[in-house]
Structures are given as C-alpha cells and as structure tokens.
Amino acid sequence: MLTRKLFRQSLAPVVDLLYPPRCPVCGEAVGEHGGLCQSCWSGLVFPVAGEGEDTAQVSTATLYNDTSRKLVLAFKHGGRIALAGLLSRLMLARLPALEGDWLVVPVPLHRRRLWTRGYNQSALLAREIARAREHKLLVDALHRQRATPSLGGLGRAERARVLNGAIRANPRHLARLRGANILLVDDVMTSGATTASCCDALGQAGAAQVHIACFAQVMDEAL
Which regions span the lipid bilayer (predicted)? Predict the structure, then answer.
C-alpha cells in the first residue's frame, strides 16, 4: 500500500503537467486534482447539528444547493467517477465513529439504468467509505426489482407509492444481512423515499440497525 502511494506521488508532477488540475465545478485552476477552488468551496453549505439530518440515523455531508448540485451532476451523469474521492471524503468528515462490525451497502440502481450509465454512483461512494473505515462492502446487498420513473417533481407520498416494493434484499445475502449493522450509502437524499424503501428491505431481512450516509440532502427550509 505504501509503495503504491509513493508511486502515485512520484507521478503527480507529470500528471499535473499533462492534465492541469481544475475545479470540477467551475473549471478554475486548483492546486491539486480532486480539490475545489476557494469560491466553490465557499459555495457548499454544511449542515449544523439538527439541520439537514437526523443525527441518530443520518449523516449528511452537505445541503443540496447549486454548488453541490453541479458536483452531483458531474459525478452522476457526467461520467466524472474520480469525484468519488472528493465526495466520499466530505461524507466521511460528517460520519461519526461506528462501533463494531458494519456492512457498507449502496442504494441500488435498476440493471437497465446501470447498463445505461455504466456505474452506480452510490456504489463508488460506498467503496471509498468502506475502504477508509475498514468496513466490509456488500455492493449487491439490495436489488431494485423493477425500473422506476424519475422521481423528480413528485411529492413525498407519490415517491413512496412509486417505490413501494421496488427494492428488495438480495436472497443470496440474507444470512449476512440478518443481525448486521448496515451503513447505507446514497449520493442525494430528496424526500427520503428511496432510503426508506432500502431501510424497509433491510429491516425485513433482519438487519439490526441502519445508519444512512449521503453526500447532499435537500432541505429547502434550511437554505
């Protein structure tokens, strides 16, 4: 691990020369890859205690605003998978110490959307978090059994109706999920309907407890 890190460090000047580091939000020059410029960093809104999160069950890195939205869109729809490092570091900064053994589980994509996009952004974040915290990653613990339409513009009740029964625990992993502590990872939490559906599926599988970690949470009243 140390040798690999030293190797990357030795190549950094060459990489920076060929591909000068830019802010992923605005494109301004920055000191190193994977960082934000001062202006965009200042544009992020970090929740205070009791704002944008349920401190007992949810850890939120940022509140959803124009800056965090641009980061999410670049990561989720723009193919900027390298942003997983930056976003996960911000999430880890808000994630409390979790005692005992935990399984890190991403919110699933339906296979059709996975094929179209080429990756599950929540799985990339989950991998980084599992590695940093030395927890086990179970990337296919949950299945999205049917494709659901975009939830944008739908109210809380309508989102819950659309997602009802759409997410189930993977039958192959029921033994591992039973009695397990689960860290559920998502990129954006809007109404909470998707994570609630995941929590229901994990609860039915016998999980002991679920803690949710997301990068951005929509909280209009907080903004």
Answer: none
Confidence at residue 223, expressed as pLDDT on a 0 to 100 scale: 39
Domain that holds residue 28: 1-43
Which of residues 55 and 92 earns the better pLDDT score?
Answer: 92
What's the Cα-to-Cα distance from 210 to each of 37, 125, 184, 199, rounded to whole Å? 35, 17, 7, 7
- Same domain? For 48 and 38 the reply is no
- Nearest Cα to 205, choosing from 181, 176, 174, 162? 174
45 pLDDT band, cuts 50/70/90, is very high
Cβ atoms of residues 54 and 214 within 8 Å:
no
Residue at 222 is within a domain: no
Query: 2 and 15 share a domain?
Result: yes
